[in-house]
From TrEMBL:
Protein name according to UniProt: Heme NO-binding domain-containing protein
Keyword Glycoprotein: no
Protein keywords: Plasmid
Domain Heme NO-binding: 2-160
Superkingdom of the organism of origin: Bacteria
Organism: Sulfitobacter sp. TCYB15
Keyword Protein transport: no
GO molecular function: heme binding
Pfam families found in the cross-reference section: HNOB
Amino acid sequence: MKGTIFVELIKMAEDAFGEDVVDIALDNANLDNGGAFTTVGNYPCSELIKIVTAFSELSGISSEKLQRMFGHWMMKHFVENFGGSFEGKADSFSLLEAVDGEIHVEVKKLYPSAELPAFSTDRISDDHLVLTYSSPRPLVEFCHGMVEACLELYGQTAEVARSPAPHPANATNFDIRLNG
Ligand code: HEM
């Protein structure tokens, strides 16, 4: 997993809990590298999970909630740093439909070592999309946060219902119905 993800997670926690709490959490997490992450490095996703768990233990906020918050944080980071990917995307559904075949394809070209999930989409109607997310990594709550942040980016609100997908392996359906 890209170092940028770790660097941004630590920034989010510094913003939310302060630097002292973050230092204690990184100590508590028993990390392989002692907690020194660079944006250009690559680290196992299991280390990210250890950090989230340590933040959760110190803050009392569940790991699930922290992953969701982090989805929102990363979306803001991507908007600020990869603005071009959002051009021509008129709404959240257009953006979500472009992640697998377009946005993450470009990410993979830029960072061949990136470990990306797989998405497929089914547009049921103008205001109803099913997004199927599949990843061997335990990041479904992070994905949920990204989906929520996509909606917010376009000033849209929706009911988002999540359920295990029958296939492929490790897949989750996000059933997204726009309000109003
Ligand atoms: C400009 C927009 C985007 C950029 C630049 C981007 C880039 C990235 C990068 C660099 C990673 C980390 C890969 C690694 O660490 O090896 C990642 C992971 C991920 N991205 Fe995106 N992404 C974008 C949009 C989205 C959107 C809109 C979604 C919406 C659902 C999404 C869902 C995810 C998820 C869930 C992961 C975690 C990896 C996993 O689940 O296995 N991304 N993305």
